[in-house]
Design brief:
18% strand; disordered N terminus; six-stranded mixed β-sheet; six-stranded mixed beta barrel
C-alpha cells in the first residue's frame, strides 16, 4: 500500500454524495441563470465548510466552458458554470453543457479504477494473449506493476530493438521511452481530415493553430451564413451557438449543407440542403460551373475577377505559375475543355444528390450576395481522397471573393474556434519540463497502425515501405483502440503483441485489452492546470479532491518508471508538478489594449510564491493569481470597434505584394504544385488543381454497376456525427448521459420502410471489417441511402458472434490511407438489416465496467 495519502470514501458518504448529485441534476439551467449567493470563494470556506472551486472540464469538446464545483468534506455536492459577470452578446458567459455538468459522474463514478492490476493469465512474453479483453483482473501493488512494465520494456527492447516499443498518441511516456533509447510513434489527421496538410500548402488556414475566418463580432456583418458540414449545437456547445444567434439577430440568413438536418439548422432557421457524404466537392464544382456560366461582370456579376487575378494563381491559363502546363488550369477543368466533361449542375447532381436547379440557386445566391460567410467544419474532409474537397471549397471562396473583408469569409469554423476566428488574445504558458528527442524515426500513420503489427510493414511517409515488429503497446493519454480505424483489426493486433500497458481511470477500450492497467488521476485530483478555450478566454482549474484510491498522476508514473529503468527522473522532471502548474500560470500572456503586443496575464507576488512553495520572480499582470484561480477564467472584454477584431487574410487581400502568403507564389494557390509533389511520397497522388475523384469506399462504391445504378452488397453510406452524449469517446460510461442520449443509429423513414425497420428495432450494420448493433431511430431529417452512427461509443464485443453491441463507429471504418495520409472516417459503406437475434437492452441499463466492486475502500 502506498505511503501517500489515499482517498477514502465510506459507503454512507458515497450514498450521501449520490443523493446530492441526483438532486443537483434536477436544478433548472438557462442562459440567464445567475446564483447571487455564491461568491466563488475558492480559498475561504463558507458556512458548513463548503467551498466553490474552479474545476476542469477537460474533455476535448469545442465548447471549452467554465466548470465549477461545490466541495464539502472532500465531496462534490453541486456543480455550476460561468457566473463571473453579467451575460451579454458582446461579453458572453462561457456556459457549460450537459456533458460538463455530468463531469463528477466520471470522477466519482462507481467504475473508477481503484488499484494497479494485471491480467490473471498474463506472463512475461504475453501468457494467454488470446484472453486479452475477456480475462479476469488481479489486484497488484504499484511496485509490482512498475516492475512488470519496466522489465517488459527492457526485455522487448533488448530482444527486438526499441522500434518494437510503440507509445500511442502523445504523453509523458513518449518522453520516458525517448530517454531510454526511443520508441515508435504514430500520427494522423484525426479531427482535421484533409485540412491538416493540404490547406496550408494552398495558403489557407487549417482551423486550429491558424484561423481563416473572421471574429464573432464581424460575423454579425454577414448577410448570408453557409454552414457546410457544421453543427455547433452538438460539436461545440456553449458560446459558439450563442454567437451565431447574434448574427441571426443582426439579420443574417442561414443555409445548412449536411446529410442530416441538424439541431443547428433548426436553431438558426436554416434552409437545409441534403447531400450525400463525401460528395461535397461535386456540389462545389457544380456551383462554380454555374458561376462561370452565368457571370457577366456588368449585368450579372457573380465572380470576383479582381480577387482571382490579384490574389490567386491557377484559375485560368493566363494566371498559371511558372513552369506549369497552361492546359492544367482550373477554368478549363470546370468547362471540360480537355476531359470533355463539363462540371455542370446536372453532372454534380448525379453524384451529390442535390437537384440541378438547387445547385444553380445556391451558386447565384452566394455569388450575388455582398457579404457571405462560407463556413465548413472538418467533418466533410474526414474522408478518403479528401484533399480535393479542401481545394474545391477554398476555390469557391476565391471565385466569389468572400475573403479578407468585413462580413466575408471562407474557412474552417469548428471546435474552439467555431464562429470566432482570430489571433489568440490570451495565451497559455508552458510548464518548463524538458522535451527529449526521440532517437527512433519510425512513425506510423493512423490508418496503418494495426496492420503494421499484423503484417509487419508500414509506409513511412516520404520514404516508402519499412518493416515493423511491434511487440509492446503503451497506451498513454488517448483512446487509440477505440478511435482508430477497424477495431476488430486492432483487437487482433493487441492479442498478437507480447505486452500491452494502459493508463486509465476507468476500464476504457484501451484498458480492457491490456495486460497491466495503471490507475491515473483525473484532472480534478491534480495540482491544477490551464485549458485553452476560444480566442478570448483562458480557463484555470484547481485541485478539487485528493487522489482517489491508489490513483497517481501521469507524471508520477513517468518518474517512478524512470527509476525502474535506471534513469534519473530529474532529467525530465527537475521540479514538482505544483511548480510546473505555477510556471504555466506565470508564463501565460494576454494581448494589450493596442491589439498588437502581449503582457503577462497573471500578477505574482513574493507572498504568492511563498504560499505555494515555488520558485519564480514577482511580476505585474492583468489579474492577480488569487483572483484568476477563484474565478476560474480570464476573459477579454469585447465590444464592436475595439482593437481585437479580426478579418482573416485582410492585409494580404488589400495588398498582396506587400503581405505575401507563405506559398511559393506568395498567393492563394488554386494550382498547388506543393500538394501534388508531397502526395507522391504519400499514398495516392493528388492533382495540383481541384478535381473530382470518386472516393475510396464513397458513394460510387455503394454500386456494383455505377452506370446502371445497380446497388451492391454494401449499399449504405455511414457517417459519424459528433453526439451530445459524448465528447469523442469521453463520457460514454456516464449513466446520466446514457439515459439522456440513447445513441441510436439514425435511418431515413424511406429506407426504414423498405427494410421493414421501425423505431426501436435492433439494426445490424456490417461490412467486411466488422459488425455492430444499434436501435433504430427513423427520421425524415436524413438523406436516404445513408445512416448516421454517432461517433465514439465504447465497443462491447460479443466474442462468440464477433459483433459489437454498442454501435462503435470504428467497427466499420476501413484501414485505408489516401492522398497525404488522411483518415477517412466519413467514407464508410455497409449493409443494413433488421437484426434477427435478441433485441438490445437500453444502454442506460447495461452494467458498468466495475472492477473489484465488493472491496472496502
Amino acid at each position: 500500500m502506498s505511503k501517500l495519502k489515499n482517498y477514502k470514501m465510506s459507503r454512507r458518504a458515497f450514498v450521501g454524495w449520490s443523493a446530492a448529485v441526483t438532486a443537483a441534476a434536477a436544478i433548472p439551467v438557462s442562459r440567464g441563470l445567475k446564483t447571487k449567493t455564491e461568491l466563488n470563494k475558492v480559498f475561504a470556506a463558507s458556512e458548513g465548510n463548503e467551498v466553490w472551486k474552479s474545476a476542469a472540464c477537460w474533455h476535448n469538446c469545442g465548447g471549452r466552458c467554465v466548470n465549477k464545483v461545490l466541495v464539502k468534506d472532500s465531496i462534490v455536492i453541486r456543480q455550476k458554470t460561468d457566473d463571473t459577470h453579467e451575460d451579454s452578446p458582446d461579453y458572453p458567459q462561457q456556459r457549460g453543457c450537459l456533458r460538463g455538468r455530468s463531469q463528477r459522474q466520471q470522477v466519482f463514478g462507481a467504475d473508477r479504477l481503484k488499484y494497479p492490476m494485471k491480467r490473471k493469465n498474463w506472463k512475461p512474453g504475453g501468457g494467454k494473449k488470446e484472453l486479452r479483453g475477456k480475462d479476469q483482473w488481479v489486484r497488484i501493488s504499484w511496485d509490482e506493476a512498475l516492475d512488470i512494465v519496466a522489465s517488459e520494456i527492457k526485455r522487448i527492447a533488448k530482444v527486438h530493438g526499441n522500434n518494437a516499443l510503440w507509445a500511442t498518441g502523445s504523453g509523458e511516456i513518449t518522453k520516458v521511452l525517448s530517454e531510454n533509447g526511443g520508441c515508435t510513434t504514430d500520427y494522423g489527421t484525426t479531427s482535421w481530415g484533409a485540412w491538416f496538410w493540404a490547406s496550408t500548402m494552398m495558403g489557407v488556414a487549417e482551423g486550429w493553430d491558424e484561423l481563416g475566418i473572421n471574429d464573432r463580432i464581424d460575423l454579425r456583418n454577414s448577410q448570408l451564413i453557409v454552414l457546410w458540414g457544421v453543427n455547433p449545437a452538438w460539436s461545440s456547445p456553449g458560446s459558439p451557438t450563442y454567437n451565431y444567434l447574434q448574427a441571426k439577430k443582426a439579420g443574417a440568413q442561414f443555409i445548412s449543407i449536411d446529410p442530416k438536418y441538424t439541431d443547428s439548422a433548426q436553431v438558426f432557421g436554416a434552409d437545409w440542403i441534403p447531400i450525400r457524404p463525401g460528395t461535397d466537392d461535386a456540389l462545389a464544382f457544380g456551383m462554380m460551373y454555374t458561376l462561370l456560366d452565368e457571370d457577366d461582370p456588368k449585368s450579372n456579376p457573380l465572380i470576383d475577377w479582381d480577387f482571382l487575378n490579384r490574389c490567386t494563381v491557377g484559375f485560368d491559363k493566363e494566371h498559371m505559375p511558372k513552369g506549369a502546363n497552361p492546359k492544367d488550369n482550373f477554368k478549363d477543368y470546370l468547362l471540360g475543355t480537355y476531359d470533355n466533361q463539363p462540371k455542370t449542375p446536372e453532372w454534380a447532381a448525379n453524384i451529390c444528390g442535390v437537384e440541378p436547379e438547387k445547385i444553380r440557386e445556391l451558386a447565384r445566391k452566394i455569388g450575388s450576395t455582398e457579404r457571405v460567410a462560407l463556413l465548413t467544419g472538418w467533418a466533410p474532409a474526414r474522408i478518403n481522397n479528401g484533399e480535393g474537397w479542401v481545394q474545391a471549397f477554398s476555390t469557391l471562396g476565391f471565385m466569389t471573393g468572400h475573403m479578407g473583408r468585413s462580413g466575408r469569409m471562407t474557412g474552417v469554423s469548428c471546435h474552439r474556434s467555431s464562429g470566432n476566428g482570430g489571433h489568440w488574445l490570451v495565451n497559455k504558458g508552458i510548464n518548463g519540463y524538458p522535451q527529449p528527442e526521440n532517437p527512433v524515426t519510425d512513425s506510423i500513420n493512423h490508418n496503418e497502425i494495426f496492420s503494421a503489427i499484423l503484417e509487419g510493414k508500414f509506409h513511412q511517409k516520404g520514404e516508402g515501405e519499412r518493416k515493423a515488429n511491434i511487440q509492446l503497446i503503451y497506451h498513454q493519454f488517448n483512446a487509440t483502440l477505440q478511435t482508430r480505424s477497424t477495431i476488430l483489426q486492432g483487437i487482433k493486433a493487441h492479442r498478437k503483441v507480447e505486452f500491452v500497458v494502459t493508463h486509465a481511470y476507468t476500464l476504457t477500450t484501451n484498458a480492457k485489452y491490456a495486460d497491466v492497467v495503471l490507475p491515473v488521476t483525473t484532472e480534478w485530483e491534480r495540482e491544477g492546470g490551464l485549458l485553452v478555450g476560444n480566442r478570448e478566454i483562458l480557463i484555470a482549474h484547481t485541485n478539487i479532491v485528493e487522489p482517489m484510491y491508489e490513483a497517481k498522476s501521469d507524471v508520477w508514473i513517468a518518474k517512478e518508471l524512470m527509476k525502474k529503468l535506471g534513469k534519473d527522473p530529474k532529467k525530465l522532471y527537475p521540479f514538482s508538478e505544483k511548480q510546473a502548474f505555477f510556471n504555466e500560470l506565470a508564463s501565460s500572456t494576454v494581448m494589450k489594449d493596442n491589439g498588437k503586443d502581449y503582457e503577462p496575464l497573471v500578477e505574482i507576488t513574493a507572498r504568492d510564491m511563498k504560499e505555494w512553495g515555488v520558485k519564480g520572480k514577482p511580476q505585474k499582470g492583468r489579474i492577480s493569481l488569487r483572483e484568476f484561480l477563484e474565478k476560474g477564467v480570464y476573459q477579454v472584454k469585447r465590444k464592436p470597434g475595439d482593437n481585437f477584431g479580426y478579418i482573416a487574410y485582410q492585409d494580404f487581400v488589400e495588398k498582396p505584394d506587400k503581405h505575401p502568403l507563405e506559398t511559393p507564389s506568395g498567393k492563394f494557390e488554386i494550382y498547388c504544385n506543393t500538394i501534388a509533389e508531397e502526395s507522391k511520397g504519400g499514398w495516392t497522388e493528388v492533382s495540383p488543381i481541384p478535381k473530382y475523384v470518386p472516393k475510396t469506399r464513397g458513394y460510387e462504391a455503394t454500386f456494383v454497376d455505377w452506370k446502371k445504378k445497380k446497388k451492391g452488397k454494401y449499399s449504405f453510406q455511414v457517417f459519424n456525427p459528433h453526439y451530445l452524449r459524448r465528447s469523442h469517446s469521453t463520457f460514454d460510461n456516464v449513466p446520466w448521459l446514457r439515459e439522456a442520449m440513447p445513441n441510436p443509429v439514425f435511418i431515413s423513414k424511406k429506407d426504414a420502410k423498405e427494410l421493414g425497420i421501425k423505431d426501436g428495432d435492433t439494426v445490424l450494420l456490417s461490412n467486411e471489417y466488422g459488425k455492430t448493433l444499434r436501435p433504430a431511430k427513423t427520421t425524415e431529417t436524413l438523406i436516404p441511402g445513408t445512416v448516421a452512427l454517432p461517433h465514439g461509443a465504447w465497443v462491447e464485443m460479443d466474442e462468440k458472434e464477433e459483433v459489437d453491441k454498442a454501435g462503435a463507429d470504428n467497427m466499420l471504418t476501413a484501414p485505408i490511407a489516401t492522398g497525404l495520409g488522411t483518415s477517412g472516417w466519413n467514407t464508410v459503406i455497409c449493409h443494413v438489416e433488421k437484426y434477427k437475434g435478441d433485441p438490445l437492452i437500453e444502454d442506460a441499463k447495461w452494467e458498468q465496467r466495475i472492477i473489484f466492486p465488493n472491496e472496502e475502500v
